[in-house]
Design a protein that fits this description.
Creatine Kinase, Chain A, domain 2; globular; alpha+beta; 392 residues; single chain
Amino acid sequence: MKYTVKEVLQFIEGNDVRFVRLVFFDISGRRKNLLIMASELKSAFEKGVPIPASAVCVDARDFGELLLVPEPDTLRLQNRQLNQGAVVSLICSIRRCDGKFFEGDVRRLLRQTAEKIHSSGLGVYFSISADFTLIRTDSEGDPTGIPDDCAGYYATYPDDRGESVIRRICLSLEGADIVPLSCCHAKGKGQHTVELKYTEAMKAADDYQIFRAAAMTCAAESGLYASFEPCPLNDSQENRLKISIALREAGENLFTDRGQGISKRGESFIAGILRYIHETAVFFTKRSCGKKQSMSVGFPGDDSVLHMAMPGSARARLEFLFADTDCNIFPALTLILNAGLEGIEKEYKLPDADDKKEYPELTDMVKAACESDFVRRYIPEEILSYYEGAND
């Protein structure tokens, strides 16, 4: 639901909300927050709330302080039942002290791209499905490396010991106006999958970040640790992130052509993503573990980075399988969208399927990104420098 500043302030006053959580994301995509009293929210809308730049970026010497400016249309309830002392949250844009947008605001990257996609007449919708692993904790609340259960794919209680935690996560998401389509026990020990409903890019990214926070909170309240690391346990299934993409134009699904396969514009969208998959790799994964994957489009069950699911049907969709669960979702979706849009605009053709290739070394992924004209068009130097520095 879209809110104005006036409506947010009226809601706060009318429901006796006392605390407001100002949520922001640092340059790596990590979710952070600042809690303020509700009485300070009007000032926050008008002037912003100063924070040290080091809370957002590693090299903060040139920035000193930055401002958090709440976005009214991101209002979320932190409690399903409002009561005295209730907390609501607002996601913030990050600005310089002179009011200009901060170039290291990763969320703004996606907002700019989403606006461009909207202007193009395309409808691009994302459903994010993520694995995470529930791990037992010790008396100090630290993860022990022992999974919560040893159940398998689609297991039920009592083999699936995390079922009550998953239900709590889903109810928490519903309370924040996020729709979980499905959830199940995945293949690995203590591993679970939650799939979120299709929505536009900005909401999809925000919803995924809120889901991660909800999963970790609900797990902690149950004496567990929810790990989104790609390989949290040495002897278990890796956690995977699946980004499903629906592409529409004038009400038509571009990933199908009247039941005859993928439309030409749909093919060009996919070709654009594949064209830049090597140059953008560091924004999706940081693994250099000898894993092999075919850099092409295939079908569910094979090892391609892209899958065409339900081809030829009205529900045809593209599945992007190259991203890790701990990737920075904002530049990830930004690059997917811009690559696909360029593919359509320049009518790129699908390449021939290639052989399986090992994930490149992290140093090679960083180098490819820094030397890429495509990446530099959409990723500011402040953010690209973070990925360079993280590899030093």
